[in-house]
Amino acid sequence: MSRTASRGRAGVIGFIVAETSLFAVFVVAYLFYIGKSLTGPSPKDLLELPILGTICLLSSSVTVALGSRALAAGRVARAGGWLFVTIVLGVVFLTGTAQEWRRLIVEQGFTIGTNLFGTTFYPLVGLHASHVILGLVMLSLCVIFAGSGALKAVHAERVEFVSWYWHFVDGVWVVVFTVVYVVGR
Amino acid sequence: MSSTFVSTEPTAVRDAAPTPERSGTLAILHDWVVTVDHKRLGIMYVVTGLVFLVIGGVEALLMRLQLAWPGLTLVPPDTFNRLFTLHGTTMVFLLGIPVVFGFANYLVPLMIGARDLAFPRLNAFGFWILLFGGALLYFSFIGGDGLYGAGSAPAIGWFAYAPLSERAFTPGNATDYWNLSVLVMGFGTVATAINLIATISTMRAPGMTLGRMPIYVWTMLTVSAMTLLILPPLSAAQIMLLLDRFLGAHYFDTQAGGSAIIWQHFFWFFGHPEVYVLMVPGFGFVSEIIPVFSRKVIFGYATLVAATVSIGAVAMSTWAHHMFTVGMGGTLDSFFAASTMLVGVPTGVKIFNWLGTMYGGKLRFRTPLLFCCAFLFQFLCAGLTGIMLAVAPFDWQLQDSYFLVAHFHFVLFGGLIFTIFAALYYWFPKVTGRMLSERLGRWNFWLLVVGFNLTFVTMHFPGLLGMPRRIYTYPADRGWDILNLVITLGVPLQALAVLIFLVNVVYSLRRGAPAGDNPWEAWTLEWATTSPPPAYNFAALPPINSRRPLWDVQHPDDPDGPHE
Questions:
Q1: Average pLDDT value over all residues in chain B
Q2: Residues of chain B with C-beta less than 8 angstroms from the C-beta of A42
Q3: For residue A122, what is the nearest residue in chain B, using CA coordinates?
Q4: What local confidence, expressed as pLDDT, does residue B150 receive?
Q5: By C-alpha distance, which of B194, B226, B36, B224 is closest to B128?
Q6: B238 touches chain A (CB under 8 A)
Q7: Which of A6, A21, A32 minimises the CB distance to B233?
Q8: Residue B391 has pLDDT above 60, yes or no
Q9: CB-closest option in A7, A25, A32 to B203
Q10: Those residues with Cβ within 8 angstroms of residue B29's Cβ, 6 or more apart along the chain or in another chain
Q11: How far is A9 from chain B (nearest CA, A)?
């Protein structure tokens, strides 16, 4: 392993640790405020389990890993394909979140200012969604470069870092799902 | 001396290095603005910190003049609130952080024999975002009025307790400037911390094992790891505050069931370890300087490293000792009192490491060692009052009194700033190639010691007599007046000391004695290269077979290796 590579590895691990710390506080705030809203509605009234989105996001961890491995093995087209599938799965997840938010905000009139549930729900889910968007941007760049021929086997480690980030976003969703849709409901 | 190992490399390497040949102010400015060199960024960090030291010092001076005697009307109450807010924020985020991370920028790659930090451009980002944050904070004087005409600079205290920091109680933009400024500076600090961890963990020179790293590098590794864990929570809390203020969220809005206390938890989860993030690198400075001026190896290297890492670990669980008066209940009070006392143990170990190093050494009382000696006494006092305040019932009595203010100024001024001065005198020759004047250094030291102790030893007493912090004036019949006068009388001495330091820098840059590669006969790698070091740091490294590679070069008959 080259020196540059291990440097990047340490950097990405540090970044993910810092991000974990950031999310932890939003999760703690959510848990702390469960059931403390002075007015309705409560999570039970509004939230539905985002089953499809969750299945898509969790399986996208597999596809991104397959893409990353394919690149390491020098199979660029195959890697681009798997990364593209990852993007599709991520977009399905985001669409689910978008529909949920549209339903809550437009149809139910439930916003960040409605009560403490709204105050803690939107920033936590929104912070996660913004990370999904960032991940999709990075994955899209990988796919575009794979298509243009700029992506080569030497970039395998960088794509692996993208996959680590994507696994992290996935792991955060497991926590958010548990806290918001299981414990909090 | 350097010729013993530098000669292996042809001089062509040096000639090939880019030397700034272009002249003219604009070209020089351009070189500094676009630089990604860790040494230049380190210098810019430290200079930024010193500029803000002067600004924050002037704010303190104004507050002390106002408090010198009962009933003065020099500074109006609103302005006083802004002064202590900016003084605290400036000294922590714009003096402490830039100086600590600036020295690390400069020294860590040199000490581990690396060419630069792992991510030089990320490093430049960290510096410029910090400078931008500082500008944003002080821009609040102009822009803070916002559309509401409600005040200029922020007046919420440096820890910005909710609900005071909420829109209902601080309209206008001043609080938002504080919030955004600290938020972006936090991003820069996290970036630099990641950079340092990556550098230390992957870029050490061959032979530089973890067990041979200078203690200072260990302290920076520890505080960088802490930074990754504590700064994002502050950023998260600040994002919540932004959401409260701009989007009508209720995180800290007690009217809607929100909790003001959870802000305190989030803030101090950052705020307390932050004190260690600032102070532990100071321990690192002392651990490098005392052995060199005692002509001995550091006493108990392994215990010192273990104590450093333990401090980092235990300090993460002491934050709520800032909140004893909140009414957390007996269990939490006891837990945080115990954990706070526990952190005193590794800190005490370090004091013995330093004393053990000096014991029996051939002490050379040059300016850096003088500052280290004063640090030992003052930091011990700071630790003792810290243990007193860790006792929850004692804290109930003295919370938010001048006793507390005296305590934490003993830590951050008597501890941190004294070690920073020691470090400035110690490494100035390496950075500039010239020695600072010893004569001016002694004036600097003695004025600072006398002024500091006059002000801050005395400050304990009005606190014990019940004087609360953050009051802009006080009645005459409380027995606080003479004490406050004495406290204020110490300030001009400290201001003069800092002025002498600045004069010393300007004078020594032009007329100082040439330093040579290793003026202090020190042993760590940064002294193996020229002063100032070339852009590429090292043409060739000495072999690293012990914690003191330069000692081994100087004494091939008695190397350290077998003794470690």
A1: 93
A2: none
A3: B249
A4: 56
A5: B36
A6: no
A7: A21
A8: yes
A9: A7
A10: none
A11: 8
Query: What CATH number is associated with residue B61?
Result: 1.20.210.10
Cα(B548)–Cα(B526) distance, rounded to whole angstroms?
11
Average of per-residue pLDDT across B4-25 = 52
Q: Which residues of B touch A11 (CB under 8 A)?
A: 118-119, 122, 194-195, 198
Residue B139 inside a domain? The answer is yes
Is position B26 within any domain? no
- Give residue B202's domain range: 35-213
DSSP string, B119-173: -HHHHHHHHHHHHHHHHHHHHHHHHTTTTTT--SS--STTTT-TTTTSTTTS-SS
For chain B, what percent of residues have pLDDT higher than 70? 95
Is A18 in contact with B190 (Cβ distance < 8 A)? yes
Cβ atoms of B480 and B465 within 8 Å: the answer is yes
Q: pTM for the complete prediction?
A: 0.93
Q: Residue B350, CB half-sphere, CA atoms under 13 Å: how many?
A: 32
CATH architecture of A3-183: Up-down Bundle (1.20)
- For residue B235, which residues of chain A lie inside 8 Å, CB to CB? 22
**Burial of A101 from C-beta contacts in 10 A (0-12 / 13-18 / 19+):** middle
Number of domains present in the structure of chain B? 1
Where are chain A's structural domains? 3-183
B205 occurs within a structural domain? yes
- pLDDT band of residue A185 (cuts 50, 70, 90) is confident
Is residue B168 packed enough to be buried (19+ CB in 10 Å), middle (13-18) or exposed (0-12)? Answer: exposed
Number of Cβ pairs < 8 A linking chain A and chain B: 96
Residues with Cβ within 8 Å of residue B162, at least 6 apart in sequence:
B241, B251, B252, B258, B260, B263, B264
Amino acid letter, A13: I
Give dist(CA B203, CA A10) in Å, integer.
11
Query: What is residue B148's predicted lDDT score, i.e. its pLDDT?
Result: 61
Has residue B519 been placed in a domain?
Answer: no
Mean pLDDT value across chain A: 94
pLDDT of residue B6: 42
Inter-residue contact B204 to B249 (CB < 8 Å)? no
Q: For residue range B268-281, what is the model confidence (pLDDT) as tens digits?
A: 999 999 999 999 99
Q: Is the Cβ of B242 closer than 8 Å to some Cβ of chain A?
A: no
pLDDT in tens, B413-443: 999 999 999 999 999 999 999 999 999 999 9
Taking alpha carbons only, the member of B454, B373, B347 closest to residue B406 is: B454
Amino acid at A85: V
Q: Categorize the per-residue pLDDT at B147 as very low, low, confident or very high, splitting at 50, 70 and 90.
A: low
- What is the C-alpha radius of gyration for chain A, rounded to an integer number of angstroms? 18
pLDDT surpasses 80 at B151: no
